[in-house]
Amino acid sequence: xxxxxxxxxxxxxxxxxxxxxxELVGKRLIDCVKRTYANAPYYKxxxxxxxxxxxxxxxLDDIEKLPFTDKLDFRDxxxxxxxxxxxxxxxxxxxxxGTTGKMKVVGYTANDVELWSDALCRCFAMSGMQKGDLVHIxxxxxxxxxxxxPHYACQKFGSVAIPVSGxxxxxxxxxxxxxxxxxxxxxxxxxxxxxDTIEKNGMDKSLVNLRSGIFGAEAWTHEMKDQIESRIGxxxxxxxxxxxxxxxxxGCSCQYCEDQIHINSDMFWxxxxxxxxxxxxxxxxxxxxxxxxxxxxxxxMIRYNTHDLTRIxxxxxxxxxTTPRIDKITGRADDMLIIRGVNVFPTxxxxxxxxxxxxxxxxxIYVDRxxxxxxxxxxxxxxxxxxxxxxxxxxxxxxxxxxDIASITGIHAKVQLVEPRSLPRSEGKMVRVIxxxxxx
Length: 440
Ligand code: DLL
Known about the structure:
By secondary structure, the chain is α/β, with parallel strands linked by helices. Helix content is about 30%, strand content about 25%. The protein has 2 domains: about 10-335, ANL, N-terminal domain (Rossmann fold); about 340-435, ANL, C-terminal domain (GMP Synthetase, Chain A, domain 3), CATH 3.30.300. A 9-stranded mixed sheet has the order 4-3-5-6-7-8-9-14-13. Strands 10-11-12-15 form a 4-stranded antiparallel sheet. A hairpin with a 2-residue loop joins strand 16 (about 335-340) and strand 17. Helix 5 packs across helix 6 and helix 8 runs parallel beside helix 9. 5'-O-[hydroxy(phenylacetyl)phosphoryl]adenosine binds near residues 216, 218 and 242.
């Protein structure tokens, strides 16, 4: 990672002592539970059913008394039943598509939008953004939070948003090379696609003058980060967030903790829980990430289970921040494939793929059930610049990648090397897994 100049946006909140923060979040939680209970009937029902009264919450230590919320609360109360304010107090809606087919709809008050911008300004400062920087925003604009969130935050930060939105890669490249923005925001897979296209067209990469990339919205590996950084010459940061909690900006990596993410915990209090028992896990243990968005007004979520899997770490980071850090997200619990009883994450397969310069970082995973047995295969594109040109060489490469996948995941996956540019590309979140087991 290059040595870039960064700063702390809000020392008061990002560097406060742990006890002080717990006390502050405790007060915010008490207020948030009261407001939500009084104004969102679904939440009153939930607390009443759990036999908990808002008065039982006297400090942050009581948080575990509260029941979890999750995507089903959005589904069951679609579209507006999770609102905790009258609709005329809202200024905007965002939504994300749910696996159940119903969108998770989130309304924002003016204060919510401000809070979101504050959270993002902290992330921008973490990533070395400077006032006056041109910020190329290639996340989609619209109901997705990736476009408009950073857009409004740029205004607060004092940088200049270029609202390119997703797609039209030729135009993205034109702006990158001719306007020369310092910062780009998009999914890591779309950045790779942009780089591929620049290389394929034989364009001069030195015309792109990006200092940093703020990438997120999907699980990605350290290896993918290294590859993006070295191929286009920028420093990559990992930004995390979800619509239900606010959008991007729940947390971001800094230049010291590159494989971890600082959580803006005074706004979004994190817990890691055991997926089976729901019990809060100690520092360093892998579990599901739960947030309480204690400052939110429109749709506050209390103990919202994201089902994203990670670990949490406390203590001061070398950057000076005291906010807790989570490890890079391995994936969502629902991304986890169970292959013949073994848990496998697409990111584990990515780690194996990225070890080989003979292939490109473009792969697809196919899962099927044949004669009652789960079978998994991985198609990976060959790198035209360095793939072996003999059958023997190709066979050796295939076996070697299969061996690495087996040692990382514990399962045998059949690897198929395919032509460069023959697999689908994505302008937003990449769908890498086609699981046909349950579709028959
Ligand atoms: O993806 C918000 C976002 C936009 C984040 C732009 C970062 C950048 P949703 O569409 O609601 O919101 O999807 C949220 O995406 O629960 C994670 O599973 C995944 N996700 C988001 N950021 C990361 C990340 C946006 N940095 C879901 N690493 C989350 C891994 C991520 N997964």
